[in-house]
């Protein structure tokens, strides 16, 4: 890999390696050489999981651990990582063996995602956690900014319904307990009732939907605990 | 939680919190309060996975990603974490609700392991990655020092055999290709042959066993790729 291509990738990832051998290893698929990137991928995967967990934890103080975990899974799944890799043109730099070249391996999502994780591992080994954090933050900035904590809460009703269906239980009934305040700033209290499981929970919110979600979330956790 | 108990735990974990509220939350089980430790546990789990991955990567440059992953799983599994938590007497500090107190929740491996992970998350939030790294290194020092990379390599032959048995394939035959050098520094080249799968790989090493393991490891990966 010549210096020009190395410099070109450095510009793309906004990071210049102190030791370019880390970068070269990160770009090397096992079909190309025994000095391939799979150990770096293992390392990069764990660095990425940690950095995303930390970012989500700090950004969303009110999201519970289950939702944090689902959000992270969403962000670091293969298709997300390969989309980021594609957007930075990483495929052009991957070193592949002949067979993989012929079958256009540089376009395969698994290879793109693995190489992206390897790059993360390589930056971490080369520069430590701080530049890795900066790289990951840049890569995921848009996706992190697009997360709407309100939409995550929406999952609670769906989750509860799925859980109850899987247990062949009756579905929850949501009742309005009270609506207080003026028209422009009402507070809803909603009860979620699952008859068969003898569960009654309440949620409070500025809209009926939010209150239902909170009640559903509580019921969901009670259900899980009783299983 | 009074200052004396806080100081006592600080001595045990060799870390004094700048903000003791992190420590208190880390010790709080969901049965005790809504301000419980499950978000911290999510964070601590990912910090721990990352730190152990990084430690294993650096300590064992010749162990492949599959074995690194298995080693990590071994180190961070619930029973390992609860053993560490027990050895530091963490159970005495966990804040449990009445029900959990009655059923001796402070001795339950899952609660001990979760609290241990929460403490890791709390140290990370309070002090950053460096003190967390030091804490984790201290906790896992003995276990990390006990890992024998030679024993891990032994797995390749076993893994290959198990894989072949699961596929109802014939078992591999190991043949000596060559033995070179003087008696005190011989180099063995061993071939691993799996007839039915038409796989032939070679391993080289200073003992027959090492060469066989290498040949087995290569055959194992070829088998996996062809599946």
Task: Provide a compact summary of the structure.
2 copies of one chain form a homodimer. Chain A is mainly alpha-helical and 227 residues long.
Number of strands of chain A: 3
Distance between the termini of chain A: 56 Å
Helix content of chain A: 55-70%
- Model regions low in confidence, pLDDT < 50 over at least 5 residues of chain A: none
List SSEs of chain A in N-to-C order: HHHHHHHHHEEEH
What is the structural class of chain A?
mainly alpha
Q: What oligomeric arrangement do these chains adopt? A: homodimer
Task: Report Rg of chain A.
Answer: 23 Å
Whole-number count of domains of chain A: 2
Question: Kindly state the mean pLDDT of chain A as a whole number?
Answer: 92
Strand content of chain A: 5-15%
Report the top-level CATH class of the largest domain in chain A: Mainly Alpha
Note down, in words, how this protein is organized.
Two copies of one chain form a homodimer. Helix content of chain A is 62%, strand content 10%. Chain A has helices spanning 3-13, 20-26, 38-59, 65-76, 78-87, 98-102, 109-127, 129-146, 149-166, 208-225, and strands at residues 173-180, 187-194, 199-205. The first copy, chain A, has two domains: 3-147, Ribonuclease iii, N-terminal Endonuclease Domain, Chain A, CATH 1.10.1520.10; 150-225, 2-Layer Sandwich (Double Stranded RNA Binding Domain). The first copy, chain A, is elongated, with a radius of gyration of 23 Å. The mean pLDDT of chain A is 92. The first copy, chain A, has 227 residues and is mainly α. A three-stranded antiparallel beta sheet of chain A has the order 1-2-3. In chain A, helix 2 packs antiparallel against helix 7 (109-127). At the A-B interface, helix 3, helix 4 and helix 7 of A face helix 3, helix 4 and helix 7 of B.
